Amino acid sequence: MDVSFLGGPRPQRGVGVVAPFDFALDRELWRWVPDDVSLHLTRTPFVPVEVSLDLARLVSEHETLGDAVRALNAVAPEIIAYACTSGSFVGGVAGERAMCEAMTRAGAVPSLTTSGALLEALDELGARRIALVTPYTVSVTQSLEEYLSEAGITVTGRAYMGLTSHIWKVPYREVVEMARASVLDSADALFISCTNLPTYDVIPQLEAELRIPVISANQVTMWAALRHLGTRAVGPYQALLDESARRGPVLPEKNQQEGWA
Questions:
Q1: Over 70: is that where the pLDDT of 255 sits?
Q2: Coil, helix or strand for 37?
Q3: In whole angstroms, how large is the CA radius of gyration of the chain?
């Protein structure tokens, strides 16, 4: 059979992704990625520790990051993304920057983290007051709030689940319930934290209901990585990805006719 007409596979641009050992949502990351970009994932070594501040520190050690990035060098990605929110906010703003510098030294390509991408996304949306949803315990949630406060972001409301394992198994309905519970005061946006918490399909629905931009850990990570490549993340009508979605739903003018509800 003559297959010369196929012409070979299309050229691909690569995004290297360093994820914690328990990351289970590879497929969710791929849903934001256009066809001409490939994700190359690697994981940090297993440690017998539940989701906590201790685990966040262990999976973000510079030596661990360096080993992971050097493993990705073999496939020559154009950028490295560290896909873990808690691991990248546990050291504060300075710690996040130091992580990026350590990864860049190991890989000789630009690097970013989920928490750094979060601040980049909030700046893009002009959001300084946000509601917050996390699957974490209270101590990990407080650490995220401290990171945001250090960056000049005010948390207007929060809801957290108190989980220490199997976060990827949380159903969408629980994510939606937590999102509703967190928006107690005026907020510019809602952030759903943790790259191991499923969010892709609920973002447009929550934006329509809450009438504010809704961003998530995996979404901002992919959005920032792809933007650094000069391309765009793909997704169904999400405010971060589509400027037309930032204006919110158009409400009908009040009808003065008697009996109008």
A1: no
A2: strand
A3: 19
